Amino acid sequence: MAGQTRRVRIGNTAIGGGNPVLIQSMTNTDTADVQATLSQIERLCFAGCEAVRCAFYSKECAPAFKEIKKHMRVPLIADVHFDASLAVLAMENGADKVRVNPGNLRGESALETVVACAKACSAALRIGVNAGSLEPRLLKEYGAPTPQALAQSAAEAVRIVYDMGFYDVAVSIKASSVPVTVQACRLFSAQNEAPMHIGITEAGTYENAVVKSAVGLGALLLDGIGDTVRVSITGDPVQEVDAARRILQSAGARKFYPEVISCPTCARTQIDVTELAHRVQQILSEKQKPITAAVMGCVVNGPGEAKHADIGIAGGGNKAALFAKGTLIGTYSEKSILEVFSRYIDRHF
Ligand code: SF4
Questions:
Q1: What is residue 158's predicted lDDT score, i.e. its pLDDT?
Q2: How far is the CA of 316 from the centre of ligand 1 (A)?
Q3: Which long-range contacts (CB under 8 A, 24 or more apart) does 331-340 make?
Q4: Higher-confidence residue: 149 or 106?
Q5: Nearest partner of 268 among 305, 235, 243, 233, judged by Cα
Q6: pLDDT at residue 215 above 90?
Q7: Residues whose CB falls within 8 Å of the CB of residue 37, separated by 6 or more in sequence, listed in order
Q8: Which CATH superfamily is domain 8-250 in?
Q9: How many of the other CB atoms lie within 10 Å of CB of 12?
Q10: Phi then psi for 2, rounded to 5 degrees?
Q11: What is the pLDDT of residues 281-302, one digit of tens each?
């Protein structure tokens, strides 16, 4: 397990130092279009996004950023490539954090300029190392963007920033390959205390992106690595928020939804598990009860498998048995079981 990372303040929140893993996403509207960007940010926040990043691609974004910032309830992050002066402009116009890539930041003193402004504006930085834009020096040394090369690039950049007396810095190391990303993050995390933003970059369209992200982020989160996450999906970014929540909950990092354990059904199934599982999920969501419920098809394995759930339903002889913490409460008709279940939840949870 990774040790605790350094706490980094980002606007009105913080990451690292034992804080809950923060969910972020990135707008895909034109940042200069304030209305469109604000409307997407509103949808992201409604879905549960806790920090929003917008591309700050030219100086034309400055007035828009200033306006967007006025309406933000969560931290506003600027995504900057190539140009230190854009990072400065973003911070001067309200960015709580700026993401810069040491591999493509032009000019000798670019990082010094960015750090000096971050100090003056009380903004945080993210050093974002990407396999597609690794420094030529490290590419030559390692022959490819290997996990070691990526981890070294991030470690060197953090050391330079720390040596400037600036510590509000997070790190991301991303590659479209899940194994490369996971290995690089593990290598970095083993030797550094900077909090990590984790994600699988260019993960693809919905299904692929969710599976790749679940595998990659899941592996890291189970190792205790990751202080903020972004699930990168081609399409509407609002989808990223729900996917991030589900990955965090599955990894045991945070709890957002009721958990419904339901069996896959087999030849022993004696009740309509699919329908009941959907209805149980719906009832718990409506009642906003973040508890664990089980829906099992038979009494052979059901109660045993479900005994760690707070409440469970198991089919048997065309009836449905209700269990709480593994103890039988009663046996009811399949028709009435949901009503009994709902009443029991109201009384006991
Ligand atoms: S709980 Fe019963 S019905 Fe469901 S898969 Fe297991 S054995 Fe089959």
A1: 95
A2: 11
A3: 334/271, 334/272, 337/271, 337/276, 337/313, 338/276, 338/279, 338/280, 338/283
A4: 149
A5: 305
A6: yes
A7: 27, 29, 30, 31, 54, 64, 68
A8: Dihydropteroate synthase-like (3.20.20.20)
A9: 10
A10: -75, 150
A11: 999 989 988 789 999 998 777 7
Nearest ligand 1 atom to the CA of 298 is 2
Does residue 105 register a pLDDT over 80?
no
Closest ligand 1 atom, residue 269 Cα? 3
Residues with CB under 6 A from ligand 1: 263-266, 268-269, 296-298, 300-302
Token readout for 123 is 């903004």
Domain ranges of the chain: 8-250, 259-348
Q: Taking Cα atoms as reference points, which of 164, 166, 31, 29 lies closest to residue 94?
A: 31
**Which ligand 1 atom is the nearest neighbour of the CA of 314?**
1
Question: What local confidence, expressed as pLDDT, does residue 30 receive?
Answer: 97
- State how far the Cα of 72 lies from the Cα of 37, in Å rounded to an integer: 11
Token pair belonging to 291: 């508890």
**What's the whole-number mean pLDDT along residues 122-127?**
97
CA distance 347 to 289: 12
CA distance 31 to 58: 10
216, 208 Cβ separation under 8 angstroms:
no
**What is the 8-class DSSP label of residue 243?**
H
pLDDT surpassing 90 at residue 102? no
- Could you tell which of 301, 307, 313, 318 is best to mutate to test the pocket of ligand 1, judged by most ligand atoms within 8 Å of the CB? 301
User: Which helix (H) or strand (E) segment is 176 a member of?
Assistant: none
Q: Separation of 124 CA from ligand 1 center, angstroms? A: 51
Q: Tokens 């700026």 map to which residue?
A: 98
Four-way CATH pick for 259-348: 3.40.50.300, 3.40.50.1460, 3.30.413.10, 3.20.20.120:
3.30.413.10
- What amino acid is encoded at 42 in this protein? E
